[in-house]
Amino acid sequence: MSDLSLSKTVEAAPPRQFDFDRALNTFGAWTLAILWALPLLYAIWTAFHPAAYEANFELFAPLTLENFTKAWSAAPFAQYFLNTTMLVTLILVAQFVLCTLAAYAFARFEFPGSNILFTLVLLQLLVMPDILIVENYKMIRNLGLIDTIVAIGLPYMASGFGIFLLRQTFKTIPRELDEAARVEGAGPLLVLWKVYVPLAIPTYLAYGLVSVSHHWNNFLWPLIITNSVETRPVTVGLSIFAAVDGGVEWSVINAATLMTSGPLLIAFLLFQRQFVQSFMRAGIK
Amino acid sequence: MTRRMQWIYAWLLLTPAMVMLFAFTHFPAITTIINSFFSTPRGRRPAKFVGLRNYEELMADPIFWKVLVNNLWYAMATIPASIGISLLMAIWVNDKLKGRSLVRMSFFAPTVLPLIAVANIWLFFYTPGFGLIDQIRMGVFGLPENSWLGQQETVLICMMVVTIWKEAGFFMIFYLAALQAIPPSYKEAADIEGASRWTFFWKITWPLLMPTTLFVSINAVINSFRLVDHIFTMTGGGPDNASSLLLFYIYEVAFKYWQTSYAATLTVVMLALLSIIAIGQFFFMDRRVHYR
To answer: Is 4Fe-4S found in the keyword set (chain A) (predicted)?
Structure first.
């Protein structure tokens, strides 16, 4: 957008005039940004300082990593991290496979019932598995999968959002590419693998980031379905750790909090641009 | 490929995803409705048909009404607030601004953090006497300490603040994408006409952003019923259910008291509410979306 004071208005504004509007906007943006960053900055402050400085902000307070080592040894976080990593990988792979196949069918095949089925897919955007905890618990119990990592992932593997996103992407790919490959004798699955998937890589990346961060952060369903150290993801582990009444210091809890969000936070800081663009791409409909 | 072959191929491609989708979304949604008409099976006593008894219980349950009212207030406050703030953020970040990427980072960071983890940080902010909010109040204004999460009047507002803080940066991204899609020539034309920033916003930007607003507000509605993680850490629904929301109550009924049929009945209410709001929003906004 072009700057107001630089535009070619007939009554030319005096050059280099103090732009009050702009100054006000910059001030507002920064105030809000500081306010928004405050909780995180605060957590970083307490996590890296001894407990005595929890509410005592001295610039030259001694730094320490003790809170992290305390938190790490107080609960089996290594196991929790392993569980979460396995969980998000499992969900991501399953989502990519299932959604790719379904999206391909919706984007490039004509068959009876396609509209009804697609509406049913979109319905999942409104009625998410997150809400259907009671019946999904019964379903998992009937399958005999209570307290397994697979069970945490199962309800999310066929994602309506993923199918929709990939279908939109596949539809933008010119049919000529598709037909050229078929003339050379490639079957539909080979065409999907050689033509559609490579051209949709930005969408996969975007969807992958959204999916990983969503399932890394998920809490309620894993809380319900797991009850042992071997299956618990970090979010559930953290809530159990922090809920131990009284005994745990704030600085240690905040260190654990940072630890559990750490991998995502570091990835976000490193790939900030890609992250924001991915979320943007995932949102454009 | 013959037509019939195409059909078979398409169905084969769809089968894995559709089976999973039916198993964990459509089928449970239907059994939820069915189970709301049955009693909870206990031990040797199987579930038996009870007609509308669960619904009668629901109507007479004061906690349900309290939680429902909480959730409606919660939705009515967090949806417009997070939409308004996210739009403001997007406009600021889209503008030429000193330190733009830092500002954007600060707005977006809460989105990638687990809600259950940030709830710990906020819990400390609200701690009476010792927490950051009380320290500022007591230190700067000399006011007495206040139990923010311990009072019925303030606890829900405290939860709303956390939600808005968590959501706004996420919605900002969608507005940012939409703002960048507006051709710069519109702005140039408006400048030549001498339109103010304010006029330009209300006459050009806001109408063009309507589809995004629709998308974001539907997301916000769903989130206002779906996101309850912070309640677990911060209040456990208390005091006296003042900060409990519908999904949290469903969790308590189902997995603390094991009254699964009553939980199913509550879920039916939730599904009905979501559908009504989504459909209503769609029709209400749809008229404006096409009015360009």
So the answer is: no
